[in-house]
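Incident review: delayed structure delivery

Summary: a single-chain prediction request sat in the queue longer than the usual turnaround. Root cause was a stuck worker, restarted by the on-call engineer. No data loss occurred. The affected request and its eventual output are reproduced below so the record is complete for anyone auditing the incident later.

Affected input:
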Amino acid sequence: MQELIAAAEAAADVAAAAIRPFYRGGVGADLKSDASPVTIADRTAELAMRAVLSQRCPEHGILGEEFGLDRPGARLRWVLDPIDGTRAFITGRPTFGTLVALLDGPVPILGVIDQPITGERWIGAAGQPTRFRGAHGRAGCRPCAGLDQAELSCTAPEIFTPAQTTAWQRLAAAAQRTSWGGDCYAYGLLALGAIDVVAEPGLKVWDWAALVPVVEGAGGRMTDWQGRPLHPDGDGCALAVGDPALLPPALALLAA
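Output delivered after worker restart:
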């Protein structure tokens, strides 16, 4: 596992080096088929990560948001999102991140959330406590006695379908406060004990695979909206809680 962690960190390092020169540089964005933006920074960073991982782990598969899947038959597969939160990146907000995950079959066993501008990095690995590298904070979710004391977060309201909006509004009504924005950075804050619940739909495997080991290694839980483990073929609805006691009531509200 230590060699795999070193490979993931090396991939995050080269991605950060590729991204930083474009930050707040007026970089333009193209729209992909799903209307999400992509920039030269996304593509450059993913190519750099692929080169590092192909050299260090030549037998592993690699799935990236921008360039698809290599070696589809491999049991161990790296899953990459060079810039999770491209809208934040192109508008100069430091709340995006680079995500590096390793799946064993459908199960994420290693995840890195890296913020290239602030230098913060979360490292989660199966069977190990999450590690955080940054100027402030240490990894560890906080206890929360109930949803009425919880800080709830989501990236943006427009990502919900009407039915999902109704479900999410039930959860929001039960929470103490709601905040918007953050993409993967919100899950990092949950793993630091600053946020209690994140619930959002529409996540692809490269959006959530790195988050699961980070959240659960910090003492939290992460499932779909039915309480099942997230799966590459799932519906993309994700729920993360810092205090595991919040999971049953949050699921009940989302499913009501």
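Verification: The chain has eight helices and 14 strands.
Action items: add queue-age alerting; document worker restart procedure.
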